[in-house]
Write a structure and sequence with these properties.
Elements: E1 4-9, E2 19-23, E3 37-40, E4 49-57, E5 72-73, H1 82-95, H2 99-106, H3 120-125, H4 138-152, E6 159-163, H5 169-182, E7 186-190, H6 198-208, E8 212-215, H7 221-232, E9 238-241, E10 253-259, H8 276-287, E11 290-295, H9 300-307, E12 312-316, E13 327-332, H10 333-338, H11 347-358, E14 362-366, E15 376-378, E16 395-396, E17 401-403, E18 410-412, E19 425-427, H12 432-442, E20 448-451, H13 461-470, E21 476-479, E22 492-497, H14 511-523, E23 534-539, H15 545-551, H16 555-569, E24 576-584, H17 587-605, E25 610-622, E26 625-634, H18 637-653, E27 660-666
Parallel strand pairs: 6-11, 6-12, 7-9, 7-10, 8-9, 10-11, 13-23, 14-21, 14-22, 20-21, 22-23
Antiparallel strand pairs: 1-2, 1-4, 3-4, 3-5, 15-19, 16-17, 17-18, 24-26, 24-27, 25-26
Helix pairs in contact: 1-2, 1-8, 4-5, 14-15, 15-16
Bound molecules: adenosine-5'-diphosphate and zinc ion (2 copies).
One zinc ion binds at residues 387, 389-390, 404, 406-407, 409.
Amino acid sequence: MLRYASVIIDISHENVDRMFQYRIPEHLLPQIRVGSLVLVPFGAGKRPRKAWVVDITDKAEYDESKLKEIDSLVEKGVTADENLIRLAWWMKERYGSTMNQALKTVLPVKRQVRARRTNLWEELAGEEFLAGQVCLSEEQRRIVDSFCVDYESADRRPYLIHGVTGSGKTEVYMEMIDYVLRQGRQAIVLIPEIALTWQTVRRFYARFGEEICVMHSRLSAGERYEQFARARRGETSIMIGARSALFTPFSRLGLIVMDEEHEGAYKSETSPRYHAREVALELARMHGAMVVMGSATPSLEAYSQAKAGIFRLFKLERRAGGGQLARTEVIDLRRELAEGNKSIFSRRLQELITGCLLRGEQAMLFMNRRGYANFVSCRGCGEAIRCPHCDVSLTLHDSGRLICHYCGYTRPMPKICPSCGSSYLAGFGIGTQQIERLAGKMFPDARILRMDSDTTRRKGGHEAILSSFAAGKADILIGTQMIVKGHDFPGVTLVGILAADVSLYAPDYRSAEHTFELLVQASGRAGRGKRPGTALIQTYAPRHYSIRTAAAQDYEEFYRQESAYRRLMHYPPFSHMMALLVSGEDEELTAHMIGEIAAAVERRFGDRVTMIGPVPAPVYKIKDIYRKILYLKQENYDILIRIQKYVQDRWDETEDCRKLAIQYDFS
Ligand code: ADP
Ligand code: ZN
Ligand code: ZN
């Protein structure tokens, strides 16, 4: 007889991160299961507290007479899916978070929904839809056929589709979903938030109608809860959304699709710092479901798994509908300067834009990495003007104000240098606003749109800009990362990448991978319609392998060079890394504690792990909080987990820790 329940108390209280065992009273035995929300007596207070049942056993962990009894069930039928509780447990273990943090991540918060239901369907109902593609190409068909055979025979080896931009991956996903639905199962489709546009949703709606549900960050908490509730009631069978769509309480999950698998947005920035790919694989394992990933530039993680035969690799090498990949050209900006052109537009780019405008076609100009540009520095002492609360330079905006992109601090542009009093202050670097202004001067008749985090801050700003560009209401679209992700603009025949190497110098072992991805994805925006496209890459480092291989659209060669480098340096995916971050208001205490941790790890695990640091985090101070990092490298993930538990146990026992925070980030 299973009579004891382990519970986690009220998930809004971080400080109670232990399981407590309670007796299950006779009359509740038939109703209580893993995932039930119950009321239990706890602490000195008279009011019983809410708790989630996370385990049920027939063994009392303590003296049975001392165990208290569960009071009641909170509400009949309020249960979390058992698999989600297990998944939270798995995430806590794998990413070194607390159980409370993991539960908060997987369980939607119940909120009252205002009467307004998402008016998605009304909006979509007024749209003209493209008819679905009836017939798949031979390349596409081969993948779908193989999928059906594997699915039928319960072979659940994950799929990785490496398909060039515009090769019709979405059509392949839809065929697979259709198949899985016909088996009476459900599907989750993950799309990075930034690429989750009406354009994508519309295609799914055209095919599956109201069977789809959409989850994105612009929904209110109540609306999200309602979407999950619909899924739980079985009123929907396809959930499309960003990474949190993984936690849809489907009971008959059959397929998880992960589009643009390489996207950084799939990694959570808050604890548990999970990666959606890893969680998807675990969730699929629990449900006996399939995982299908797709990308034009697979991550090193996924591609190495495919090379090792753990994932099945499929290729789509041609653009669906017969279009050609863009022709690429590389321009060396050093030569441009040497020959007297100081503008950010090379002469070749000016020529291409002019031609494009003459033919009535559209161009996109892409500026990589917004935050680094546009700072103001002093020619007298060389100091940049910095945020007083964060360890970053302030960004100069067209309004003439300086703004901190980390905390929002803002001040007017000073007349004299705050450090030395010199009056020679000047803006450095170049941002999207200046590009817009320069392009306006150079091409006065062109209609120009700009898309970056300034112009999209308003709700719906993102959509408004994309749809007006798609409708041909502008000739040139200027923007950051967000213009290159997954959009399909058939009128675009030219993509100009203004400074390709900016992202190469980021302090991150993934910088070459990110650069390659951005260049290939950006080039992929050109020539998706009937007319052929050109991608022009301007760079100061034309010989760098990520730029050369991106220009040649040669993923295999990029992978070869990048994986050799990662292996040599013992970087992921060929080794694992845990970044241990300690942060606090007290700079000295922060440094002292992370030093103690480093010493303790060295004593206990020094022979088994490579340690780097402690070093200041890439941004040392944010909102007056100091941050230091210790990096630990080891091929065996389990050893890193053991170190994490060792550190956390000691941490919990130290009094000073109340004033600091510790976080772990695995890769
Ligand atoms: P990807 O997701 O690989 O970038 P998409 O699925 O967006 O590619 O497809 C690119 C374009 O090609 C879309 O407009 C799509 O409707 C079209 N397409 C896809 N499959 C076919 C096909 N078999 N025949 C003709 N056009 C297709
Ligand atoms: Zn100065
Ligand atoms: Zn700041």
